[in-house]
Automatic annotation (TrEMBL):
PROSITE patterns: FLAVODOXIN, FLAVODOXIN_LIKE. Gene3D superfamilies: 3.40.50.360. Residues 4-139 form the Flavodoxin-like domain. Keywords: Electron transport, Flavoprotein, FMN, Transport. InterPro entries: Flav_short, Flavodoxin/NO_synth, Flavodoxin_CS, Flavoprotein-like_sf. Coiled coil: none annotated. Low-potential electron donor to a number of redox enzymes. Its cofactor is FMN. This is Flavodoxin. Belongs to the flavodoxin family. It comes from the Bacteria. GO terms for molecular function: electron transfer activity; FMN binding; oxidoreductase activity, acting on NAD(P)H.
């Protein structure tokens, strides 16, 4: 069965809820989601998969979380070419970091299966629907 990691950073749980929704959709589509907190996987290990879901909230001033997630993504960026990728994250008042992140994924030569999914705080029904669609597209 095709395994797809869902790798996330979270401070207060919102992005983890989003990761769980993506994982559920991946499993429902017949692939196997492997949900990993960022501390549980290296960029090298992540690069071993053909399709990945990555989740990180807006932190700092509209950037990825800088201590763990940004170093992980910086390392992974050079190994993303040809892969299918979905990205998602929660935010509080802005959310523009997502456009920068989308551009980085595309510039790395990966296929972004859907627009980056944002949720204001905890994911609402609309965000959940987008996460479900992204998970399904990753598993195809
Ligand atoms: C240190 C810090 C910096 C943040 N910076 C931003 C920001 O630049 N833009 C924004 O929209 N939200 C920002 N937020 C809000 C978080 O993105 C928001 O609370 C989000 O729901 C956290 O997701 P999590 O529950 O997965 O940790 C920040 C929160 C913290 C704690």
């Amino acid at each position: 069965m095709k395994q797809i990691p869902v790798i996330f950073w979270t401070g207060t749980g919102n992005t983890q809820m989003m990761a769980d929704a993506v994982a559920e959709a991946i499993n429902a589509a017949g692939a196997e989601a492997v949900v990993k907190n960022i501390s549980e996987i290296t960029a090298d290990e992540a690069a071993g998969y053909d399709a990945l879901a990555l989740g990180c909230p807006a932190m700092g001033a509209e950037v990825l979380e800088e201590c763990e997630f940004e170093p992980f993504f910086t390392e992974l960026e050079g190994k993303l070419a040809g892969k299918k990728v979905a990205i998602f994250g929660s935010y509080g008042w802005g959310g523009s970091y997502m456009q920068d992140w989308e551009a980085r994924v595309k510039d790395a030569g990966a296929t972004l299966v859907a627009d980056g999914v944002l949720a204001l705080g905890a994911p609402d029904d609309e965000a959940m629907a987008k996460l479900t669609e992204a998970g399904k597209l990753l598993a195809e």
